[in-house]
Amino acid sequence: MSMAEHVAAVLADFQNRHILVVGDVMLDKFVSGSVERMSPEAPIPVLSRTKEHVMPGGAANVARNLAGLGGRISLIGCIGDDAAGKSLMKALSLVPQLGFFPIISPDRPTTQKTRFLASGKQILRVDNEATNLLIDAQASQMLLQAETVLEDAEALVLSDYAKGCLSPFIINSLIAAAQKKNIPIITDPKSRDFAHYDGSTVLTPNLAEFQAATGIISADHDVIADAATHLITNHNIEHLLITLSADGMMLANKNTHSHMPAYKCDVFDVSGAGDTVVAVAAATLATGRSAADAMTLANLAASVVVGKSGTATLCPGEFIRAAVPVSSETSREDMSRLVTKWRSEALRIGFTNGCFDLLHPGHLALLAAAKERCDKLIVAVNSDASVKLLKGSMRPIMDEALRAGILESLPFVDAVIIFDDKTPARLIDALIPDSLIKGGDYIAEDIIGYQTVTSAGGTVDIISLKAGHSTTALLD
Fold this sequence. Notes:
Blueprint (H helix, E strand, L loop, with lengths): L2 H12 L3 E6 L1 E14 L6 E14 H10 L3 E9 L2 H11 L4 E8 L6 E7 L2 E8 L7 H15 L4 E5 L8 H14 L3 E4 L13 E2 L3 H8 L6 H15 L3 E5 L5 E4 L4 E4 L12 H14 L4 H15 L10 H6 L10 H13 L4 E6 L6 H11 L4 E7 L1 H8 L8 H10 L5 E5 L5 H7 L3 E5 L10 H6 L3 E5 L7 H5 L1
Parallel strand pairs: 1-4, 1-8, 2-6, 4-5, 8-9, 9-10, 10-11, 14-15, 14-17, 15-16, 17-18
Antiparallel strand pairs: 2-3, 6-7, 11-12, 12-13
Helix pairs in contact: 2-8, 4-5, 8-9
């Protein structure tokens, strides 16, 4: 199995899995502009503001990453009764399949990080936060809410940013509850005392956090591995996944350790990259795969998000693309021969089509449902030229070879063909599939190919699209 197929298989298995994320939520605000002069009042640059926008940060960004990969996410965290809290709730309400259950505290502000950027690079960050622990009533409310949601969860993520949401008591209580359910526990630590995280399946410190917890200064792999083994033994932690920035990642358990170099990539902004690592590790473990798999996929995901500006996430198509899929383009003649072979084996042939630009969870849901209606699924992909006719000159985002390669990697797609026409009518006439499958709110008789397929005794199946997911929304 290629890396692209491996990533695609994990993503396919992860769809609609319920993950509980508990931790320090925050609002990330970005003020962008240009710097053309220095201030006459002090040796500082003058930023001419052009725009500003907000994104969910901290535990909220972990949850947003998981939802973007197709999970069904419950998020619990504390916000203030203020404008930042309302902005965070609004931003999270726009994320499909993400339910936010806030503990609202009138006596503390919503954690907000404001970053000022010139030419896409940060020049200043201003934080507004309170780091004292929640009062007893709020802590009890959070714990009760989390334990209730945990009953239906398939993995627990604890995102500790040391803003007062996760006390040692709450952490220990939730880990104990998750252990009773025998589900993976992924913890992103900030405390120097890793005893707070006893019982975690995977603990994900960065190198600075690991050094603070162990007192070591060296970045030598053997020194790190020895210190990691000591921590694991003393604190009942199954695995340590240590992110080493440009040096990649190290995974250690009681018996062994392994190092994975970082992928070569252009680093633009590391904001939120750790959240993506935690999210991908959690998604991988939630599907029943190993910690080694979690490191492999998290390392790949990190190489994608560091090339983006702001607190970034990634969608399934970008993730699979990073594994360098290769498409072997299929001609109509080759596809016809393949269809003839499948028919000789009495297999039901399904057909669907689309642009599939920036593959997202809505696409995955459609293709998985399409595969349930046939033995072999053919996906026809609009060429770059036909996408421009349909979507405008700024599309597609990914070229036709990449889009086809990503689709070929999916476990529920059996064949991919690129077509240049504005509609797939000629292709359907040539192949005459047993099942013509379309996603959306259509009348069957209005679908291109209806007459061809039904006249040959086939069926036209319409599948409702997954709400909230679209390439346009991703681009926005």
